[in-house]
Design goal:
Structural class: alpha/beta
Distance between the termini: 49 Å
Helix content: 40-55%
Number of helices: 22
Largest sheet: 8 strands, mixed
Strand content: 5-15%
Shape: globular
Number of strands: 12
Strand order of the largest sheet: 4-3-5-1-6-7-2-8
């Protein structure tokens, strides 16, 4: 058994070496693309260093099956197990080699790492070969053959040292069965951290190519499959027969508003600073219910001087669904998260990049770790000049909770960073204190709510912190030229206990605030049905900046704006309109919620989803 443990360690390093070999081949093959920085060697070395944790995770995942087979061998001592081990090991190397070679072949044109989409690409190998110059096809074939021959010999040498019938040592058997799995598990999830490892962990550069160097291609490929099981075959399950004229009418109603439409201008300037505060898990109950309004007294007071959207809705229920909705106007999709696939989210438009093109300096700040849902990758894709999360800050430990730095300290940090930013600036903060475990540094103020009391008090704490933030911001010279936007990333369960299929669960507050708002709009409640995905088009329109790339975001101040909001349901969609709303489950083919007898909503929603999902599949 001791022999088996040494063998497993060697196999781990074999897979680790394999990953590093192909990373090096990629670097050499695309060295010209790496010249986007002044010190490509230094940046490349940083890519290798940042890649280590994800490479360890990949190798740990790949040795799970060998670990199982080696433990079986302690019971049966069979040569068949050695054959299975050899077959598995060489099979992994061969399959992974094809993925790596495919990456080398497609990256020049696609500039993305291979995902499950490559299966569709390889359905027509003749076209794939024909689209690549002959000399490059020969080079890639040579690389493939050399790597396979080298690793075949290494595998052969590895297995020559493994004795199937080695004598058992029961102490080592117990270690292998009960202790070793812990090391494999920790390696695969990236250690003890609360949030498991993801591609986000290795992101370090503002240049996409260097982050692509750091990402483990094998891990990325496996992840793309596990995260897209529902649509892995590339087929669109939303099927509807409708004439083109009616289809176009539906899409015009539900998708982007036209550029250049007549609109209300709510700002006194078209180049204000913008401070966007994304509030973790904030329910619309707090602005609709008089009892709940007392939990957010500062926001309610600010709404008397700002513009409060009373019927705003979140796209979905998770942060890594909400942020793309806010920054890219992208509606969430059932069965997959676009943040998990850089190959897709890099096809999205980004609010940040549009503002940068118009001389805005940009920053994004978060007191925790963004790696959950691969958000780090997505936020880097936005192109912020500055991205800072917990590991980039050096605050005192008493300012820190389980998830990261508490909101009052992060809002003070945002204030400080904004004061140092060149104007006009676009700075964004993502709060975290209203996320469980609700360990805000404050005695409970809200004494009702039963099991939701912790959440209610966390919302009260963040509201209190925002009140202090605005009070201090008013003392700054830049305040008078700043638009503040407060919006939730998604809603949350409250003691009112709405079903997730109910539109009221997805209801969120959204507030525009600041001296740059024209006086006639201050204190105004806008009762239109809107979505968080409308922020991008609405803001850009107010700044007289084109928003034509934002195909799913709408200018809510456009005269042609049609009131509606899309919400994602676990297995389908929801559609909210002035006439009524429904939520539809495509797997069960049934309406699971409706508040009016609106027969046309299912048709409209299906047309919208067919277009949305096909756009995603085509990315």
């Amino acid at each position: 058994m001791q022999n088996s443990l040494f063998f497993l360690v060697k196999q781990f390093f074999l897979f680790f070496l394999f990953i590093e070999v192909f990373r090096t081949i990629f670097v050499i093959y695309y060295w010209d693309k790496l010249q986007v920085v002044t010190s490509p060697i230094k940046e490349t070395l940083l890519a290798y260093v940042n890649a280590i944790s994800l490479d360890i995770a990949t190798a740990s995942i790949l040795i799970v099956i060998p670990w199982l087979l080696l433990n079986l061998n302690t019971l049966f001592k069979s040569k068949i197990i050695k054959i299975l081990l050899i077959t598995y090991t060489f099979g992994v190397v061969v399959f992974s080699t094809f993925i790596y070679i495919a990456e080398l072949g497609i990256y020049n044109e696609w500039e993305e790492k291979p995902t499950f989409k490559i299966f569709n690409y390889l359905k027509h190998p003749d076209e794939a070969i024909a689209s690549n110059p002959l000399i490059l096809t020969l080079i890639l074939t040579l690389i493939m053959l050399v790597v396979l021959v080298v690793f075949y010999r290494l595998i052969k040498k590895l297995f020559s040292s493994y004795d199937v019938k080695a004598k058992r040592d029961y102490k080592i058997v117990l270690f292998s069965l009960f202790i070793l799995p812990l090391f494999i598990f920790l390696g695969a999830r990236g250690g003890w951290a609360e949030i498991p490892i993801s591609q986000s962990t290795v992101y370090f550069s503002k240049h996409k190519i260097y982050n692509d160097v750091a990402i483990s291609t094998v891990y990325n490929f496996i992840h793309s499959i596990t995260e897209n099981q529902a649509i892995i075959n590339g087929e669109n399950p939303y099927k509807i027969i409708i004439d083109d004229e009616k289809r176009e009418a539906v899409l015009q109603e539900l998708m982007a508003t036209p550029e250049g439409c007549k609109r209300e201008s709510i700002l006194t300037t078209n180049r204000p600073n913008v401070v966007l505060v994304i509030w973790e898990s904030l329910s619309g109950d707090f602005i609709k219910n008089e009892k709940y309004q007392k939990v957010i007294p500062n926001i309610m007071k600010m709404s008397e001087e700002g513009i409060l959207f009373t019927h705003a809705y979140s796209s979905a229920t998770l942060s890594h669904e909400g942020l793309p909705s806010i920054f890219s106007g992208w509606p969430a999709l059932a069965g997959t998260y676009i943040t998990n696939l850089p190959s897709k989210f890099y096809k999205l438009p980004f609010l940040t990049q549009k503002l940068k093109e118009n001389d805005y300096t940009t920053g994004f700040f978060f007191g925790g770790q963004l790696r959950y849902g691969n958000l780090t990758s997505y936020m880097y894709g936005n192109g912020f000049d500055t991205i800072e999360e917990h590991s980039d800050m050096n605050m005192d430990s008493e300012k820190e909770g389980v998830l990261g730095y508490h909101d009052e300290y992060m809002l003070a940090y945002l204030l400080e960073k904004s004061s140092l930013s060149k104007e006009p600036f676009f700075n964004s903060l993502f709060t975290l204190s209203s996320h469980s475990p609700y360990d805000q540094p404050m005695e409970d103020v809200i004494e009702w709510g039963d099991g939701d009391k912790g959440y209610l008090n966390s919302v009260y704490y963040t509201d209190k912190s925002i009140g202090e933030f605005i009070k201090n911001a008013k003392k700054k010279a830049w305040y008078q030229n700043t638009l503040f936007i407060f919006v939730a990333d998604h809603s949350h369960h409250t003691p009112l206990a709405w079903s997730r299929a109910d539109k009221r669960w997805h209801h969120i507050p959204m507030l525009f605030y600041g001296d740059v708002i024209k006086k006639e709009y201050r204190g105004k409640n806008i009762d239109k049905i809107v979505s968080q995905r409308d922020i991008s088009a609405t803001l850009l329109s107010q700044l007289n900046i084109s928003h034509k790339e934002f195909l799913w975001s709408r200018d809510v101040f456009c005269k042609e704006y049609k009131e509606n909001a899309y919400i994602m349901n676990k297995n389908g969609f929801g559609l909210i309109t002035k006439e009524g709303s429904l939520t539809y489950d495509i797997k069960e083919d049934r309406v699971i919620y409706k508040d009016a007898n609106i027969s046309t909503l299912q048709t409209k929603g299906t047309v919208y989803m067919q277009k949305l999902l096909q756009t995603y599949l085509d990315y």
